[in-house]
Write a structure and sequence with these properties.
Layout: H1 5-21, H2 27-43, H3 49-71, H4 83-87, E1 91-96, E2 104-112, E3 115-121, E4 131-138, E5 141-146
Parallel strand pairs: 3-5
Antiparallel strand pairs: 1-2, 1-4, 2-3, 4-5
Helix pairs in contact: 1-2, 2-3
Length: 147
């Protein structure tokens, strides 16, 4: 069987379109490799079927490796949409003193994540009445430092 360059183009487009039906974000790399294989066949049309399949497999693996190593955005690069992204940097008033290994209480002018007061932790003692800044969210507690 003689496979032409347009066969690989159809396979590539079909795989890319299949990605729309199966939102795995994985088939697209095999589809792009199919399109690249079509370009390879335009340059070297005498490739055997075995060589074509081996080249397509290698191109697919290269695309997958490139995706995971280069193009894939790292997780948690941004905190948008997370609780940490909502509250880190907010300044509140400490209504209950906090010390290492002791919980305090911080109040905000506007509710953060649905509450005006939060239990907080700190690495150094901070007296009640001080302004504090949220630096982290640890479970259901806010970690604060003196603002």
């Amino acid at each position: 069987m003689n496979i032409e360059w347009w066969h690989w183009t159809v396979v590539g487009i079909a795989l890319i379109l299949a990605e729309l039906a199966l939102p795995s974000f994985f088939l697209i790399w095999f589809g792009i490799a199919g399109l690249a294989m079509a370009l390879v066949l335009l340059v070297a049309p005498e490739l055997s079927l075995t060589a074509q399949i081996a080249t397509w497999t290698a191109l697919s693996l290269v695309m997958v490796v490139l995706w995971f190593r280069v193009f894939k955005p790292s997780f948690h690069k941004t905190r948008i949409g997370t609780s940490a992204g909502e509250v880190i940097g907010e300044v509140g008033l400490l209504v209950g003193a906090v010390a290492p290994f002791q919980r305090g209480k911080v109040r905000f002018q506007r509710p953060l994540l649905g509450a005006e007061e939060w239990v907080c932790l700190a690495e150094s003692p901070i007296a009640a009445g001080e302004r504090v800044r949220v630096v982290a969210v640890e479970g259901s507690f806010l970690k604060v430092v003196k603002a």
